[in-house]
Every structure is written in C-alpha cells, then in structure tokens.
Amino acid sequence: MANISNNLKQLRKRKRLTQQQFADLMEIKRSLVGAYEEDRAEPKYELLKKFAEFYELSMDEIINEKITDKWKPKAKTDSSNIRVLSVSVDSDDRENIELVPVKASAGYLNGYADPEFISDLPKFHLPILKQGTYRAFEIKGDSMLPLQSGTIVIGEYLQDWNDVKPGETYVFITRTDGVVYKRAGNRFKENKAMKLISDNTVYEPYSVDGEDIVEIWKAKAYIATTFPEPSPEPTMESLTLMMSQMQKSIAKLQHGGN
C-alpha cells in the first residue's frame, strides 16, 4: 500500500480541503490524516472504504494508482473485476487474523468477499505480526511436508500479484482447487498460468490459469501441534521413488513439457 499516502494527499488537495476540513468530513482526528499522508500509518479497511466513497473512486484506484495532478480516473468497469478484501476488526479497530479451518475451505471460495461470512470465522491476534493484513488457513494432506496436515499457515494479503516470487510459498485461493498452500513456480502474468509446486516430490507441479486465482496470501508463519521430524536416512524405496520422479521430469523435458 505504498501509494496510499501520496494518493490521499493528492486527492485532498484536488478537493481544496485542509487536513482539518477533511478530518471533520471523515469524522476522524486531523493527526490521523497527517499520519496517513506522511506514510506513518495506514487506514483500516472500513475507513479506506469511506475515503473511496467520498472521492467516488474504487479502493483499487486509491491503493494501486499513482495519482498526480494530471491523473484521471479510469472508466468505470464491471465491479466484479475489482478485487476487494473483506476483513474484520476488534473493539480497538485492529484487524483480526481470521482462521479458515479445513471444514470452511469450500465455503471460503464463495464467501471470501462477504463481510458477514468473514466476521463469523474464528479470530485471533499475534503480536509478532503488526503491519499488514493477515489470514490463517488450515492445510490438509502431505503435499508440503514437513508441514503436516492440520498445520495452520498464516499468510499476508498480497495486493499486487506482480510481487509473487518464484520459489517462495503462498496460499492460493483458486476456483478450481479452493484453498491450496504451494510454492510458486513462476512470476504472475495477467491471465497466464501460474505453476504451483509441492515440497513433497511425490506430487508433480501443476498449473492454474491466472483468471482462476481469486486471492494470494504470502506465507509468513505457521502454527502446528507437531514438530518436524529429522530427515530419515534414505532407503531403497525412497531412492527408487526419487529416480522414478527424475525420469518423469526428464521425459517431460524431452517432449517439450513444462
């Protein structure tokens, strides 16, 4: 959200408002306006939404555009193309970390943008995670060993998907597979396929079309009730499995596969 501070200042000046006048209209303290414009703090979701409505812009424009005195808003498009994140806050206006357990994963795909659905999810806070918007997802299966099934991965919301870095882990919300925790195999390109890689080499990488991705969360921490086991000595069975996997990969390369 690096552009927010500059954008809020530019938008206020366009309206020929002082910080105090804008603060009065938004029913907040003038010091908060100064903190937002000087990049010393970031407005919470509900307040940012209020700013967007006041300026008759989308939240996406306030967050991602680089607004100058010559900037003009884009022509309005179908609102279904605009990514808006629903969050919940506590009594002190702090963003919660909502937990999406496995049993709610299917529902999350339909309710991720529904404030009522999000507000009903379990919530908690972690003092080590202060700046940013976070959500926790319970993973299932053994595709990301040594993280066991049932581990809770905490991700930071990735507003700009161009920030996806190959080799790093993310929680991808996809229309085809729902909630999946994987390693990114390539950088994101609009509507191009994103390769998802498992840490467990038994599972082969696969691709998801960009248009099928709904949200991306950068993995920041995890909570588990079991500790990772030390790497076992290789057995004949594991070596055979590794050789088989290598042969499959080489065969794909020889036939021009990804």
Structure characterization notes:
This protein has helices at 4-14, 19-26, 30-37, 45-55, 59-64, 105-111, 115-119, 236-254, and strands spanning 97-100, 123-124, 134-138, 152-157, 169-174, 178-184, 194-197, 206-208, 213-223. It is of the alpha+beta class. It folds into 2 domains: 4-75, Orthogonal Bundle (434 Repressor (Amino-terminal Domain)); 97-223, Umud Fragment, subunit A, CATH 2.10.109.10. Residues 76-82 have low confidence and may be disordered. It has a 9-stranded mixed beta sheet with strand order 2-1-3-4-9-5-6-7-8. The protein contains 8 helices and 9 strands. α2 crosses α3 (30-37).
Features:
258 residues; alpha+beta; 434 Repressor (Amino-terminal Domain); Umud Fragment, subunit A; 2 domains; 9-stranded mixed β-sheet; 8 helices; 9 strands; elongated
